[in-house]
Amino acid sequence: MTDHDPLIERTIIGRPVVVRREVTRTGASAGWWVAVLVAVVAIASLVFLFDRPPSDAQLQAAQDQGRAQAAVDAAAVQAQTAAQSAQISASTASANAADSQSQASRAAAENAGARASRAAQDAATNASDTASDENPR
Q1: Which of 70, 94, 71, 90 is closest to 82 using CA atoms?
Q2: Measured between alpha carbons, how far is residue 2 from residues 5, 7, 8, 10, 26 in Å?
Q3: What is the DSSP string of 67-135?
Q4: In Å, what is the CA distance from 115 to each residue of 4, 104, 106, 107, 124?
């Protein structure tokens, strides 16, 4: 048999071994120097980006964008004004239609009253004529 037989389980009991290591690092500040250098480059690039004046193309693009926004705002205001005007026209037309209908109903009632009055007068006249024809004096 060999010492490395996988079917045999062996347990070795012994004292634990303590290993002490001393690590001395030199140049630990190099990482800080790299971080400072990156920060300085970032700040310098931001100053460069924000300090220089905009180019003519950028100014023209900003003006065009402002004009386009003003046109959109003006169109929205015109649409709102047109909608309000249409609503006022519709309510005015509705009021005019109701007034016309009221006047037509009133005129029809007056005409009907006048016809009824004439019919009553004609009936009274016919009745008196008939009564006078039957009883001559």
Answers
A1: 90
A2: 6, 11, 10, 13, 49
A3: HHHHHHHHHHHHHHHHHHHHHHHHHHHHHHHHHHHHHHHHHHHHHHHHHHHHHHHHHHHHHHHHHHHHS
A4: 134, 16, 14, 12, 14
Query: What average pLDDT is seen over the chain?
Result: 83
Alpha helices (runs of H) in 9-55, residue ranges in sequence order: 30-51
DSSP designation for 57: H
Residue type, 65: Q
Residue 53, token pair as written in the block: 């004046």
Counting Cα atoms < 13 Å in the Cβ hemisphere of 7 gives 2
**Cα–Cα dist 40/37, whole Å:** 5
pLDDT of amino acid 13: 73
78-106 pLDDT, tens digit each: 999 999 999 999 999 998 888 899 898 88
